[in-house]
Amino acid sequence: MRDFKATRAPEPNAKWLKLRVRLLFGLFLMLLGVAFGRAVQLQVFEQEKLRGMAQDQYVRQIEIPARRGDIFDRRGTPLAQSVEVDSIWVDPSLLPDVKQASRAMAKALKVDADELLARLTRAKRFAWVKRQAKPAEVAAIQALGLPGLGFTKEPKRFYPQRELGAHVVGMVGMDSKGLEGLELAFEDELSGQNSRMSGFRDAKGRKLMVQGAMDPLERQGAAVTLTLDRHLQYVAEKSLSKAVEDARGVAGMAVVLDPKTGELLAVANYPRFNPNTPESSSRAGMRNRAALDTFEPGSTMKPFVVAAAMDQKAITADSTFFCENGAWRIGRHVVNDHGSYGWLAPRGILQVSSNICMAKIAQELGREKTVAGYHAFGFAERTGLALPGEGRGVIPFPKAEISLATQSFGQGMTATAVQIAAAYGALANDGVLMRPYLVSKVVDPDGVVLLENRPTEVRRAVSAKVARDVVGMLESVVVKGGTATRAAMEEYRVAGKTGTAQKADPVARGYSDKRIASFVGVVPAEDPRVVILVVVDEPKTDVYGGFVAAPAFKEIATAAMAHLAVPPSRTVAPGGAVAAASVTPVAAKPVASKASEPARPALEDAVTEAPEPGTVRVPDVQGSVGREAVVKLLAAALEPQVLGSGRVVSQTPAAGSLVEKGARVTLELATRQ
After folding, report:
1. Which of 95, 183, 373, 627 has the fewest Cβ atoms surrounding its Cβ within 10 A?
2. Which of 239, 299, 354, 624 is catalytic?
């Protein structure tokens, strides 16, 4: 039978249906190809770009400065430390109203609203609101409940001793970079390794997780231990401040040095400043004058000329010189003494500080050997304290006779306070110059010693005999007839020298009427333990070092002898007479007998019983002003803790109590109404 359906021609709609299917299939295939191509472009060619854009939406990376290493004094007392504090940041893009938010945050932080608004406007996704904020400020910002806020820990430098040793330690900036002093000199060792912290957030900007911070020990800086002694530094700063203020001077310097090792036990400057609040001080007030500034020292240089002349056999201890009765003409210049003197030996020349006879000694020594003598004691060369900008000083070659004369008594040349103290240390150390140093050691967090300084001999300046002879001569300066009787101590032999120098006027190219008054002493003279230099710049009440600087020396020396437990040179008899202890003479020509001196008063506190070894009785400081009370306690080897200001109204432990040396005594001070 014939199939009519099979022989029937296909309908036109069927043809178009197949065509549409093919076209639709091709379209889908093309779209799939485009999608695949786009995926390849995004995943392969634009992968890094898109990853960065994604991380920018949910990741914040903040660089966290490493915790700086601590700075300690010689006994481990911290002078500079770092503490973790909160810093506040914000993502300005998440703030609904930047202007209103900036006003609210500025009010909470008590900062300038316009400055904060400008900072947030400039930033896109990150801006600091307040770095190193106080806890109260952090709480105030959190209370605002603004979106996009973040808080991160940052190390902040803190100086627990405030002004104490500030000129030596220096300070850091907001970014924890050293700006002054040892903070700048040891920036690489103290700074450690910075790290970056990643913070993740959700679509609303809320912080979900923080990761990526390194272990604090891994990024902590090395610790620096100094040769400074906190007790002696405190006494030196207080005594210097009192000396400058009493003399109405503009500035001052004090140095305490161990002559046998070269260690600097105290380096004080005035005016003082608090590195915790550096904005309240001027740049000049932050300068470490004792190490950085050079000045014409004046008569404190005379012993070095005498020592060099004796060492070169140009003179002897018994040589005599005519001091021209107070005035001596050299060409068209006249050298003057402050008194009228005739024939004097070197001991007498140093005792009365004769400029004329000192100039004649320099003539005997000669120009070359005079300059060489100064160089032998370390002048005109840096001491190597590792402080940036350390002064060097100059010793010009004296071509003219008047130049040789003025250099012999410390004018027409410059030196730093540390150089002068180190040079006297050479005399006190049997003629051997030791390199002065401030940093004892630098140790990293793992305990590895990166740097360690030890006593280092620079050179022999003069022979041991000459050095002892000159120190013996300098004892005459503090007895009756000398220029520094106010430096004499009841229980210890003192050798020292005063200085009163004219200040150069760079504008007028001459000398002004301003003065620098100084005193440098060695104590005890028979076995020197410390060299103490005190300098007062431009004193108004008196210009002589024996009146202006010597009392401060005595105050520092009294505390130093007690703190270092140095046995007395003399004993005090019950009747108050001072008897010399049995000591070996320090000079070939002995010092004039003490019996010829006026009787000294007895000590205030008579010793009635011998306390146990290592213990001491608390002195009575009731009614004393704070400064005097602190000095008495330090002299008794006790640690003062002062509360309030004014005069002492109570002390704990009570006066007369038997306590261990180094024990803390709390003083309550109040101002009388």
Report:
1. 627
2. 299
